[in-house]
Amino acid sequence: MAWSFVFSKTRPLNTSTTFTIFNLRPYLSIFTSDFSTSFLVTKTPQKFKKRKKKESPRTTLVQTEPNRIPALERIVERDAFFRFLIKSKEFLSKQPQHVLRLDDAGKLYRELGYPRGRKVARFIQRHPLIFETYRHDDGKMWIGFTDFMEELLEEERSVMDSMEIDRVDKVRKLLMMSAQKRIPLSKIYHCRLLFGIPEDFRDRVAKYPNYFRVVVEDGGKRVLELVNWDPMLAVSALEKEFMVDEDKVKRAFKFAVKHSKDLDLDEDDTRKLNLLNTLPLVSPYSDGSKLDLWTLEAEKYRVGVLHEFLSLTLEKRASIHHVVEFKEEFSLTKHTYQMLLKQPRTFYLAGTEMNWVLFLKDSYDENGVLINKDPQVVFTEKLFKYAQMQER
After folding, report:
1. What distances in angstroms separate CA 192 from CA 160, 186, 187, one per listed residue?
2. Which residue from 2, 104, 255, 323 has the highest number of Cβ atoms inside 10 Å of its Cβ?
3. Residue from 125, 131, 92 nearest 108 by CA
4. Where does the PORR domain lie (predicted)?
């Protein structure tokens, strides 16, 4: 390509002829353009991009800020704080002499209830009135209970013995609610602290042949079966409350009529229509396994079962792990979490979406204190008090 330039002659300078270039811009348009280059997309390298943290059910709270009940949320936090105390107390109580070598304790983080990678000695030091360490004759450090804690354990055994008949009735009611009137002993053992059932309950059932029968299935699984149905026990906490405060029970649950908005009813008529849809409730002691899974009656049954289940617990609350433990026995579905969220008048879900705790709201006052306390609850509160003290 030939380049053409336009020159102009200027006055001589030192007998030299100098030329100036003018009007060059039009011919250099390929180098300097008046058009924008914003159409050129520049990408930020991936390593420089700020990544947004994905919402995780492990950290996402169940309740939004306006609906949170701080007093109940604090109970969940308290349980997390005392997790090491409760689990270590249970584990050590089953060891010979109630002692454990410290080197072994450092490997049993699941059994003792402390985070992996942490020093177990730090958690022992939290509770000097409960745990102590000492050097044994073998030269190794061991962990055990203090003499004061041994006294408390004796007191707890006395409380449990005095409440044995009550605990037996709780287990009978659980069996009566179950679909086949039978529950594996391992499930009852796993949830024993929830109901105040003693460690040796599997041996104690032999004392009550009129109530229980232990069946060993193929594979060695031991299953507890109900021997006799007791109509006096087949009365739910809601039914008892209905005799005292009928209006309160009517307000306990809400099963809204589908498409009720399309009926263009006023607020009072909508309330009456929903009440007709809610009542009558389905007894948790009826055979829920025969109900069509997705009917209104089946949902009423499942809500009633969980209400009765919580009523049988010592502290009127249970974690997701306890609820899921009895999924087959109580004919629960994978939508249990959403079902409970629809009943905020009676239930309160605290914690995170992956690790929630279910409360019976009416069992607690505005400060998060249980209104009616089982003797074992009173003992546990005393234990927590001593566990936070540095000296007597």
Report:
1. 12, 10, 8
2. 323
3. 92
4. 68-391
- Lateral strand order in the sheet of 317-319: 317-319, 356-360, 347-351
> Given the structure tokens 């009129």, which residue do they identify?
210
Query: How many whole angstroms separate alpha carbon 42 and alpha carbon 58?
Result: 37
Tokens of 214: 């232990």
Question: For tokens 């991009």, what's the residue?
Answer: 49
What are the structure tokens assigned to 388, written together?
């936070």
Cα–Cα distance, 125 to 112 (Å, whole number)? 14
Residue ranges of the chain with pLDDT lower than 50? 1-2, 4-22, 24-31
Q: Can you give the three-state secondary structure of the chain, one letter per residue? A: CCCCCCEEECCCECCECCEEECCCHHHHCCCCCCCCCCCCCCCCCHHHCCCCCCCCCCCCECCCHHHCCHHHHHHHHHHHHCHHHHHHHHHHHCCHHHEEEHHHHCCCHHHHCCCCCCCHHHHHHHCCCCEEEEECCCCCEEEEECHHHHHHHHHHHHHHHHCHHHHHHHHHHHHHHCCCCEEEHHHHHHCHHHHCCCCCHHHHHHHCCCCEEEEECCCCCEEEEECCCCCCCCCCHHHHHHHHCHHHHHCCCCCCCCCHHHHCCCHHHHHHHHHHHHCCCCCCCCCHHHCCCCCHHHHHHHHHHHHHHHHHCCCCEEEHHHHHHCCCCCCCCCCHHHHHHCCCCCEEEEEECCCEEEEEHHHECCCCCECCCCHHHHHHHHHHHHHCCCCC
Burial 35-61 (b: 16+ CB within 10 A, else e): eeeeeeeeeeeeeeeeeeeeeeeeeee
Distances (CA, A) of 69 to 58, 338, 347, 359: 20, 19, 12, 11
- Give the separation between CA 222 and CA 213, rounded to whole angstroms: 10
Produce one character per residue of 139-166: b if its CB has 16 or more CB atoms within 10 Å, e if not.
Answer: eeebbbbbeebeebeeebeeebeebbee
- The span from the CA of 139 to the CA of 161, in Å, is 39
Which residue has 């796993």 as its token pair?
190
177-208 pLDDT, tens per residue?
999 999 999 999 999 999 999 999 989 999 99
